[in-house]
């Protein structure tokens, strides 16, 4: 009987060898998966609602990215809570490149603005590339005594605290830009927060505030209708969509720069090959003339970066806005 088992059956070693041979084709090395990336749909999770600048930018870019890489890129909007919900969704997913995060200068602000931020954007994520940059526009009511930023600064110095500058909610980039302007220009202004961009513009047109700081998409139609006057832009150089409008620094507002950005990040541990594939594709897509024009019409400069460049921008903005928040005495939420 023993001889029959040895002759007709398999030894214990043979059974193990056969099982390993059968299983081997099912085990795909991680590096091979990365080389074949992407072979299914990719999610990009946004900490913003639909219809905003970040959402519009992401949809413009991912449409082209899907065409380039041959797979769908699906936008998922998870607004609120300082980006915590969106970050949690990305960080709880496998680090394989199929769930990505959109981070922004708002993410940098959240580090100092929220008490219970449950993630560290620098150490929990790896950078891929920037997608877009945009400046804010400082506008006054057309026909008001404030036809230039110099007029605003002069009036603010003549009557400290009397000039009202409107922005959206406390802790937004616009709101912190107003705080930064207050210190760099050396003026005592009253910063008035509103719930939404339309509320800011209504207050400006009604004369409740004397200046507003907003993104270009919010004020574009009002500029075209000559209802508001753009007196300055917030970047370090003039914007390409309003080239005749001086920067805050040019207009006498001191060493001021406030620029918003959106970028693609992945969970820590994502294979370098995946990061390289995404970065190369984003560079090609963001250099397409039609995409650049469509973005520029919305006040967005479509621009890719190296992973290192956008990581450094994130770190620099964390430090920059932390100092502004502390100086302004804004309580953590």
Helix content: 40-55%
Number of domains: 2
- Please identify, by name, the CATH architecture of the largest domain: 3-Layer(aba) Sandwich
Mean pLDDT: 91
The CATH fourth-level homologous superfamily of the largest domain:
Bordetella uptake gene, domain 1
The global form is globular
Main β-sheet description? 10 strands, mixed
Supply the helix-strand structural class.
alpha/beta
Please compute the radius of gyration using only Cα atoms. Answer: 26 Å
CATH class of the largest domain: Alpha Beta
First-residue to last-residue Cα separation: 78 Å
Number of helices: 13
Kindly state the number of beta strands: 10
- What is the beta-strand fraction? 15-25%
CATH topology of the largest domain: D-Maltodextrin-Binding Protein, domain 2
Order of helices and strands: HHHEHEHEHEHEHEHEHEEHHEH
Low-confidence stretches: 1-10, 15-28
How does this structure look, described?
The radius of gyration is 26 Å and the shape is globular. The protein has 333 residues and is α/β, with parallel strands linked by helices. Strands 1, 2, 3, 4, 5, 6, 7, 8, 9 and 10 form a ten-stranded mixed sheet that branches. It folds into two domains: 32-134 and 260-328, 3-Layer(aba) Sandwich (D-Maltodextrin-Binding Protein, domain 2), CATH 3.40.190; 136-233, D-Maltodextrin-Binding Protein, domain 2 (3-Layer(aba) Sandwich). The protein contains 13 helices and ten strands. It starts with a helix and ends in a 5-residue tail after the last helix. The longest helix has 22 residues, at 307-328.
């Amino acid at each position: 009987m023993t001889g029959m088992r040895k002759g007709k059956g398999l030894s214990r070693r043979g059974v193990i060898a056969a099982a390993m041979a059968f299983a081997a084709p099912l085990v795909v090395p991680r590096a091979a998966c990365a080389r074949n990336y992407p072979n299914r749909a990719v999610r990009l999770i946004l900490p913003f609602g639909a219809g905003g600048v970040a959402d519009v930018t992401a949809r413009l870019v991912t449409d082209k990215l899907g065409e380039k890489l041959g797979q769908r890129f699906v936008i998922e909007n998870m607004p609120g809570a300082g980006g915590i919900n969106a970050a949690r969704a990305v960080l709880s997913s496998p680090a394989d490149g199929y769930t990505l995060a959109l981070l922004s200068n708002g993410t940098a602000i959240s580090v100092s603005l929220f008490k219970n931020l449950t993630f560290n954007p620098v150490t929990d994520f790896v950078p891929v590339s920037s997608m877009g940059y945009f400046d804010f526009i400082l506008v006054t009511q057309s026909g008001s005594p404030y036809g230039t930023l110099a007029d605003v600064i002069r009036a603010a110095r003549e009557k400290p605290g009397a000039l009202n500058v409107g922005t959206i909610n406390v802790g937004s980039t616009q709101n912190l830009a107003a705080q930064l302007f207050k210190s760099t220009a050396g003026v005592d202004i009253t910063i008035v927060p509103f719930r939404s961009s339309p509320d800011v513009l209504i207050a400006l047109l009604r004369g409740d505030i004397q200046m507003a700081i907003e993104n270009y998409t919010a004020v574009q139609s009002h500029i075209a209708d000559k209802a508001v006057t753009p007196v300055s832009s917030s970047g370090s150089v003039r914007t390409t969509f309003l080239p005749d409008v001086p920067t805050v620094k040019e207009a006498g507002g001191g060493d001021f720069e406030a620029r918003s950005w959106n970028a693609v990040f992945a969970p820590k541990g994502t294979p370098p090959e995946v990061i390289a594939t995404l970065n190369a594709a984003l560079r090609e897509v963001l250099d397409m003339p039609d995409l650049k024009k469509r973005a520029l019409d919305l006040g967005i400069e479509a621009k890719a970066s190296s992973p290192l460049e956008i990581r450094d921008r994130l770190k620099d903005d964390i430090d920059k806005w932390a100092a502004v928040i502390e100086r302004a005495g804004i309580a953590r939420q």
